[in-house]
């Protein structure tokens, strides 16, 4: 799920269909349709991407996910590792996202 228009375009060019979500509630509504999740760490003052991912996985067990963050700390990396989540520090190279998606989901055909 992505809210950034440039990110959605880049994901589409890689052959995937981005669902896009601008709120945690929107992401939860769409997670059943997702093959993988790209989640920012800091969603709001009180919400983190890892907390959102926990709720998403309660609805869609085993959902592959990568965390994208400007807050690249050991604590965040440990919490993400405990959840089996890859961490990408901002700015994230398109090749890193492409590699993650290639490992966890198949491009959309047609």
In a nutshell, what does this entry contain?
The protein is α/β, with parallel strands linked by helices.
Estimate what percentage of residues fall within beta strands. Answer: 5-15%
Mean pLDDT: 88
Low confidence ranges: none
Order of helices and strands: HHEHEHEH
Number of helices: 5
| Shape label | globular
Rg over alpha carbons: 13 Å
The residue fraction in helices comes out at 40-55%
Largest sheet composition: 3 strands, parallel
Q: Can you list the strand order of the major beta sheet?
A: 1-2-3
Q: Total strand count, please? A: 3
Terminal-residue CA separation: 21 Å
What does the model show?
With 110 residues, the chain is of the alpha/beta class. Helices cover 43% and strands 12% of the residues. It is built from 5 helices and 3 strands. The two termini are 21 Å apart. The mean pLDDT is 88.
List the helices and strands and how they pair.
Elements: H1 5-13, H2 24-30, E1 37-40, H3 49-59, E2 65-69, H4 74-82, E3 86-89, H5 94-104
Parallel strand pairs: 1-2, 2-3
């Amino acid at each position: 799920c992505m809210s950034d228009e440039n990110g959605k375009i880049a994901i589409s060019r890689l052959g995937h269909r981005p669902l896009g979500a601008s709120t945690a509630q929107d992401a939860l509504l769409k997670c059943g349709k997702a093959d993988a999740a790209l989640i920012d760490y800091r969603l709001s003052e009180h919400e983190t991407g890892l907390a959102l991912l926990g709720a998403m996985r309660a609805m869609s067990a085993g959902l592959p996910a990568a965390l994208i963050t400007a807050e690249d700390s050991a604590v965040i990396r440990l919490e993400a590792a405990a959840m089996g989540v890859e961490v990408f520090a901002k700015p994230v190279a398109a090749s890193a996202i492409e590699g993650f998606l290639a490992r966890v989901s198949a491009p959309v055909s047609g």
